[in-house]
Amino acid sequence: MTFEPKILGFLCNWCSYAGADLAGVSRIQYPPNIRVIRVMCSGRVDPSFIADAFIHGIDGVLVLGCHLGDCHYLTGNYEAEIKMNALNKLLQLINFSERMRLDWVSASEGNRFAQIVSEFTNQIQKLGTSPINNKEKNSEIRDNLEAVKNVLEDSRLRGLIARQRELVNDGNVYGEQISAEKFENLIDEVIQNEFIRQKIIVKIKSKGKSVPTIANEIGVKASEVLEHIVVLRSRGLVDVDEINEEIPTFISIMGG
Ligand code: FES
To answer: Which of 113, 131, 239, 254 is most buried per CB count within 10 Å?
Structure first.
């Protein structure tokens, strides 16, 4: 039996949704696996929505907007590109990046809409169902996706993403511009560090654990885990749970 993937599509109202509509009225054939959420602009799609969709077992997510330069709100699709670029980096860390695609479809491109949906559906069929739907392996995947979602909801990465165009194009208040390459490196560094920190938080959200135990569970050196714990304690997100034979255990105090 062929696997029928569950695909979620975020379509912007002004271009891609109209393109999908045109495909429908023109009776252009495309796989029926996509469920559409109409948004006013691709820039409205918060990357954490996509992590959430994956947590709920969606096999693939398409985000479609107007072509660059054609956004009804001028720059919404440029913002979408920046957000999805950061999301893609996070999804690469957990082997999920091929399950998400950002693309552009205008109101007159019914054929292009059908082609993108067909290509993406084939790609997801080849990848198979999301690993979160595999009951034997899903707890680690769920932890990873939760960590990804937490990073995306955290103000550190959001603040950087929100200011990327401004800092790269116009510079800071002193007129100092940051090169696109330097900014990309900064985003990479924040993503790497915050992903590990959120993984630590997920692992200790209901039970205190020692540094070596956490290190073993997330596959990171104990010395590195300790450095992240120090940062998380300074942010008031983690505290000492108890001390057994001089070995402290740490627990998340985020309330999750
Ligand atoms: S309105 Fe279509 S991408 Fe902004």
So the answer is: 113
